[in-house]
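User: Can you help me understand a structure? I only have the sequence.
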Amino acid sequence: MDFERPITDYATQLQGTAWDTVSFRNAMNMAAGLDIEESFANLSNPDSFIAQFFSAIMTGTGTDWIDVMRAAEPLVDEAPGTHMRYSTSITQALALAIENVAGITYAATFVKHIWSKIGVNDPFFIPLLSEGTALGGGGNFTAIEDFLRYAHRLGPTDDARPLDRRHSVLGRDLAADNRSSLGRPVASSYQPRQRTGKRPGADRRAAPKTLKIRHHRLKNASGAVRSSIAGKPSENFPTQSPNDIRSAQDQDTNTARCPAR
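Assistant: Let's start by predicting it. Here is the structure, written out as tokens:
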């Protein structure tokens, strides 16, 4: 994929719209130059693009979410690549591009190139929209230990520092003066296949009560989703598990697992 080409060369469902002016690189950097920002003001305005987008993807009613995305308009006096403005619609466009180029589902692509290579122990769940398209902009979850393995691969290995949620991975950092921490540093001593022992920055023998509570809730939530995959999906928000796909090329069964260790 050429990061300098328009994202619509890959997310063809958006061709002929304002998205044609957005390069793949600018989309990855959340700098689309479109009036699609996920701000509190826009989220509370039912007439805004982002409010209509979430209404379409979460409820499956009203205007189709692709039509909502196609209706996005450019910002006045702001070219793509100028400012970072977060929007889940951008990650949804990227998910469309990935599926179109790979020829397999977003979930299968993720497990093939990432999840199967980092020594995880549990599945990674990706929500599906009503017609079966993966939700590329959030709602993904797995066991906390496997999230730590994934985070470790994103952070530095020689020292520990907070990860920056506005960090740009493709080119210059558009938010160099406006960084915010995700929380605890990821310790460099945490090995990818570590299953037990101390977690980064914490002593398990004296773990904070809040950490135990959150871990417990996560396990409960995971159990609920596993049962839904077994045959009881929610009506409006089913899930897609990459680790339940037996082959990245077998899209009919949707049942594969990561290679056995």
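Now, to help you interpret it: The chain has two domains: 7-94, 111-244. Residues 209-229 form the longest helix (21 residues). Let me know which part you'd like to focus on.
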